[in-house]
Amino acid sequence: MRLVGPSGEQVGIVPLAKALELAQEYDLDLVEVAASARPPVCKLMDYGKFKYESAMKAREARKNQAHTVIKEMKLRPKIDPHDYDTKKGHVVRFLKQGDKVKITIMFRGREQSRPELGYRLLQRLAEDVQDLGFIESNPKQDGRNMIMVLGPHKKKTEAMAEARQAQEARKAEAKANPGKSQNAAESDLADDDLAEESVEAPAEATAEA
């Protein structure tokens, strides 16, 4: 076998008995790291520590993984101004989180004969959030509905990083400002936790007007 020392140095090609002798001498484990190589490659290491470090790296990779999330927002073509502002606020939040947003206009009754109402509403919404997102899929009729997909300018990984930084900054501010009420501080921290959880959860959210 080809043996690698505990510091990564090349020991050379040695018989199994010699490798086991060195492992005992260093009080380490003899671990095969490349079974398909010719000759196979083994390394002297602390196998328990190696398993722990590998698990931590895998955990960190999962934590930083960016999930592709599509949120959904449903509106009526004759939505009133207050409801429109509320729905737009949700779309803004989703785009800031780095999520795509599927906008669905639902037509009922005679509204189905006025598809231009839905088209104008979708164009208006796209223009209102153009600083945060872009039209990824143009408006198209789908039965009684009209659908458009908005994509975020900000990447998901960037949104996740910003959310964590904001949470850490808020926690630091709460600790540095003892004059702030305990309830207010706890409320801020809870809001940040919810915001970060919302960014990372790979689930579809639907809101209907």
From TrEMBL:
Pfam families: IF3_C, IF3_N. One of its GO terms (molecular function) is translation initiation factor activity. The keyword DNA repair does not apply. It is found in: Cytoplasm. SUPFAM superfamilies: Translation initiation factor IF3, C-terminal domain (SSF55200), Translation initiation factor IF3, N-terminal domain (SSF54364). The keyword Cytoplasm applies. Residues 155-209 are annotated as: Disordered. Residues 188-199 have a biased composition (Acidic residues). Residues 69-152 form the Translation initiation factor 3 C-terminal domain. Its main location: cytoplasm. Residues 2-61 form the Translation initiation factor 3 N-terminal domain. Keywords: Cytoplasm, Initiation factor, Protein biosynthesis. It comes from the Bacteria. Residues 157-174 have a biased composition (Basic and acidic residues). InterPro entries: T_IF-3_C_sf, T_IF-3_N_sf, Translation_initiation_fac_3, Translation_initiation_fac_3_C, Translation_initiation_fac_3_N. HAMAP family: IF_3. Belongs to the IF-3 family. IF-3 binds to the 30S ribosomal subunit and shifts the equilibrium between 70S ribosomes and their 50S and 30S subunits in favor of the free subunits, thus enhancing the availability of 30S subunits on which protein synthesis initiation begins. Monomer. This is Translation initiation factor IF-3.
